[in-house]
Structure formats: structure tokens, C-alpha cells
Design a protein that fits this description.
The protein has helices spanning about 1-15, 395-400; strands at about 20-40, 50-65, 70-80, 95-105, 110-115, 140-145, 150-160, 180-190, 190-205, 215-230, 235-250, 250-265, 270-280, 325-335, 335-345, 365-375, 380-390, 405-415, 420-424. By secondary structure, it is mostly beta strands. A hairpin with a 4-residue loop joins strand 4 and strand 5 (about 110-115).
Length: about 425
Amino acid sequence: MNLLKKISLSLLVMGSFGVTAQEIDVNFQIRPRYEFRNGFKAPIPYGENPGQFISNRTRLNLNFKQDKFVTKLTMQNVRIWGDVGTTTKSDVNGIQLFEAWAQYNFDEKWSMRLGRQVISYDNQRIFGELDWAQQGQSHDAALVTYKNKNNQLDLGFAYNANSETDLATNYVVPLYKTMQYAWYHTEIGKINMSLLFLNTGYENKLTAPIPTPTPELVVDYMQTFGTYLNTKNKNWDANMWFYGQTGKNNSSSVSAYDAAFNFNYYMTEKFKAGLGYELLSGKSQASSSKSVKSFYPLFGTNHGFNGLMDYFYVGNHKNSVGLQDVFLKLGYTNKKWQFALMPHMFSAANTVIDVNGKKMDDYLGTEIDFTMGYAVHKFVNLSGGYSQMFGTDTMQRLKSGDTDHTNNWAWVMVNINPQIFSFK
């Protein structure tokens, strides 16, 4: 706490010498979460016992604004309770830099941001903060923004390397080598529409037909493009999206897509019901084609889609048979309480074959997610949930494990996020 007081005092002293308007805000977050994983991400194998642990995120956010400059610094530590001893001299993960960027506003319409930053758009299907994960998700990038009353255009650029080098070296971090994107958002009457074009380059191998100190580096470029639309009225809201993928991935041609629709109706001020459907393309297990036909949502907050047990697209299900997800949404809000019930019915989008080469039923299973939240204090929120997967033999064929076993997941989380210091 002495460190926080020193930081706050230093910022106050710096602000007192300013001759122009300044805004400084410092806030703190600690977020412990208990999880019981009994078939999370995949059916639990026969004879195995469920995993249990408490993860914890600690963040310190410093925001500063003066004239045309805006900056943000977020430091964080992510840990599992018990992963270091009680008398340790070092931490497993140490202090990480989650965000560190500076933005210059040229005028009311144009701005530029440089540094480590969160990139998040629309419903976070392609680009998201991934806030559920304790470590979150951020990028080293440059961002140019044009914005007026009803329109916004973002142009983003990134180029990654392992370290400072004098000669070309293969990029080994499991991330894009280079990225460029354009995101455009506009309002047409009551419809909000966004358009996205994303080009990602992945370095997948080294080629050196003739021995040379600097071998040729091969980068495959994949394009993701599409639109997101949403609208709402007094008693209902709806959204839909379509994204395609093309180009190359690991030297294979890409041809994939993702399409979805959601509709929600407010039965009362406190209760709403909705339904939705999403189709992510995939490739039949009977196919001998080397092309990539499976859509992958790249940097999205995938935990928020296709069930909370993360069986699909959360570090898994890539280059698989695709997915069909039919789901219902039931939500109830009453003062400080929030409740939600969301059943999903999953099916494979393409053929799954058994050990004998015969086609299996497309139906993968049903997942039921229940979540709740309670606002304990303006700085403290309590949330929790329970999910259960009723998987089929086809699910077991894809994911292994034992679908006859009870596969469930439960969690409880406390989010403490006080404002420590604010100055204008």
C-alpha cells in the first residue's frame, strides 16, 4: 500500500505543476476465482479425478490525459494460489505489462495510438479482450483512428520478432509475424454495421535451397473479412454476423466461413428470452483434401461463445469438422442480482467417422450453462456458475475422454475493483 501511496503522490505532484488541464485516474483490481473442472474443455478420461484450483489476477491501472495526449499503463500479476512457497524470493509469472500505450489526438477526428494495447470490436468474435482469462489478451500494435458522429475507421498494424537480431531468424512465438487490419463502423438508421478486413501473416518454416547464412523466411498470409450488424427496439434486440477466411495457412489454401444470428425479446423489464444459431465451417474426416476449410475465430473472446465449458475454439477444435450451435438465452435481473440460463445443442458441421470408417451421428451433445451475479458493493462483485455437458459417442470420438461420465464445471469469482486516486 505504501507503493500505491507513493505513485499517487507522485502523480499529484506532477499534476500540480501543469499549466493545462490534466486528468489522472488510478484503480486497482484483485480477482480470485475458484474452479472445479470435471470434464472442462473435453470429457474427463475414465478413472481420472477432477481438477480444482484458485487462480488470481492482480492489476494496477494508471490513466493519464493532458491536452492531446492520452496514456494508459496496466501492470498485472497472474498466479495460482500455492504456485510459490510462503517464503519465496521470486514469483512464477512475475509482473507483466498488460497495456502500455500512448495516444495523440491530432484533432477531434484523427488520432494515433502506439504500444501494447487491447484490440476489441463489436461482439468480440474476431477481436476481443478475452477478459475471462486471468491474463487477458493484448497486442503490440499501431492504431490510426478516424471518427465523426456516425462513423469510425480504425487502421491497425503490427510486426513481431523474437528479439533484436542482426540476421533474419525464424519467429517461434505462436503468434502472427505481421498483421494489418481495417475496421469500419457506421450507423444506418437504427442499424449499427461494422466491416472488418484482417490480414495475418504466419511464419511457418525456413527454406534454404542454396546454403546461405540468411535463409529465406516463408510467411503465409491469411485474410479474414466480414460484417457484424445489430439493432434494437424497445422490447427486442438482434444481431448477426458473417465472416469468411481465405489465403494460406501452413502452406495450405484456406476457404472457411462463420455465420450467426441472435434474437432477444424482453418479456418484462427484468426478464428476457432469446435464441440463436451459429455455423462455423469445417472439413469432413472422410475428405482427403489438404485445404483448410475450418473457420477459426483468431483473437476473439471465444469463451463467450459455444458454451462456457470451452469445448470449442478456446485453444482447441482448430482444423476440425466445424460446428453448429443452436442455443437459448434466458436472463433475469433484479436490482443487484443477475441470473442467466443458456442451453446449447451442438452438432458437427461435417462428417465424423468412427474407427471402422463409418459415418457417425452429427449430434455432439447438449450443454447447459447457469450463471449468477451479485453487486456486493460499488467496488465488489460476486459471480459464479455451473455447467454440465451431456456428450454423445460422436463427441467422445472427437474429444476423447469418457462421455458416459458426469462432465461438469463450477466456479465462483470475486471481482474487487476500487478507485484509488482520481485527479482533474
